Amino acid sequence: MTAALRLRGLVSLLFVLLVWETVSRLGIVPSRYFPGLAEIAAGAAEMIRNGELLAAEAMTLGRAVAGLVLATLIGIALAVLSDVSPFFERGFRTLTGLLQPIPPAAIVPLAIFGFGLGLKLYIFIIVMVTIWGPYLNGVAALRAVPVEQILNGRMMRMTPAQILWHIKLPAALPEIFAGIRYAAAVSLIAVVVSEMIAGRDGIGYLLVRKSFSIRIPETYALMFVTMVNGVLLAMLVNLGRRLLTGWHVKQMGYPA
Amino acid sequence: MTPARAAALAAPLALPLALLALWALAAAQIASPLFPGPGKVLMAAVQNFWIILDQMGATLRRVLIGFVLAAATMVPLGILLGRVRLLGWLFEPVIDMLATLPPPAIVPLVMLFAGTGDAAKVTMIAFAAAIPILINTFEASKVRNAMTSLVARSLHLTRWETMLRVDLPAATPMILTGVRMAVAAALLVSVTSEILLATDGIGVFLQRQQENFQIAGGLAGILAIALTGLAVNTAILRIEKGVLFWHYRNDGQS
Questions:
Q1: How many domains does the structure of chain B reveal?
Q2: CATH 1.10.150.120 fits A38-252, yes or no
Q3: Of B19, B221, B230, which has the smallest distance from its Cβ to A97's Cβ?
Q4: CA A177 to CA A190: how far, in whole Å?
Q5: Which among A241, A243, A222 is positioned nearest to A233, based on CA atoms?
Q6: What is the interface pTM, i.e. ipTM, of the complex?
Q7: What is the pLDDT of residues A175-226, one digit of tens each?
Q8: CB–CB of B97 and A207 under 8 A?
Q9: pLDDT, tens digit, for every residue of A44-72?
Q10: Which of A14, A29, A89, A196 is best to mutate for the B interface (most B CBs within 10 A)?
Q11: A134 touches A125 (CB < 8 A)
């Protein structure tokens, strides 16, 4: 990120905060529903002091990351399987069309029967809704590997497995990471929704509890936290991308 | 029909059918009401057919209203932000921030201002649909093709004509991609909004089934959502290809 971009982010953040505070002070909206920044910050500080915010945050982020990693691994495995067997790819395409439009909220009620309220529930739901990004991008990217590269591998007497591991997968990784970045956003949505419905712990549950007890500043603070979580997870994915596909970033000449 | 063609036709169905058979076998083995087989789910689907249809109608009506609201406001806003540099410069980070806010997280806020009725759910759907439309319209109207701009200038088109005749068609493919993403998002959030703010709709149907331990009925509801989503997404893709026939034709040539 260049200095100019960072400056712009800062300017627009200040602008939003200014507008927010002005609206709140002017009282266009009832101030009870639209507290000022100081009140929201106080609400956040209170939740940090009594520890509930950090506990919930660790819960939510941990679930999102665990689910995302598992979904990515399964997605890539299925993409490789689809690349090896066109027959599997055709069949799985039917399933993709059917399963992809199912919202996480729809599976939560039934999944609770199968998995209880623990980590397994969240992992299952995240995998169900985030696997498609890595999978679909993986299939497309594996297919798009230039023939010359594969032929080169054959010339060097590489086995099909070696070609897959040393040539095709590395070539497909940048595009797979684009799918993971999308999946990261979806996984956070899935976790927060599930926590709101399952109602036991995590940021989603805290959000519901605070809003039902009409703690408005805390509610806004928690919404801000979910926003920051999106940024955090995106940064984490970017870090992974730079570690695994640093060569590609260098080649393309753009900063990650 | 040659054997090769038969195999090609069977391929899309073979794997799902195999999984279905596996599911039926497992259900027969376990024989628990909490793990119904495909037959039970089908029976529940038939039994609840009219209820599901009715509730799905309520859901789709809100999806339509929310989506239209989002499209009608966000396409002009996106063009405005894309065209007026200063506004775009100022608001792009704001849009990026809003994009990371999960739509369900705005539920408490929506409840404060709009209660739990239709208005609240439509607001949630509109919010979810607004983000992809806004981002794509903004990005599409920001870039200007150097070549076509020059052509427009040598044809002495006015600024307004250039925007309408040259830049808008050039931006349409990307805007429509945003629209397609918005429809998918609207469908996803509609069910979520119903489960969180229950009154009616297919999401409420799902929750009632769960509360009554009707797993088969719940799965039938999920099946209905999956089929509806598939149908809507396919229809949107068809419409997009129809509207943008020139874009896809050109793509095929290059």
A1: 1
A2: no
A3: B230
A4: 19
A5: A241
A6: 0.78
A7: 899 889 889 988 998 999 999 888 788 999 999 888 888 888 889 999 989 9
A8: no
A9: 998 999 889 999 999 999 999 999 999 99
A10: A196
A11: no
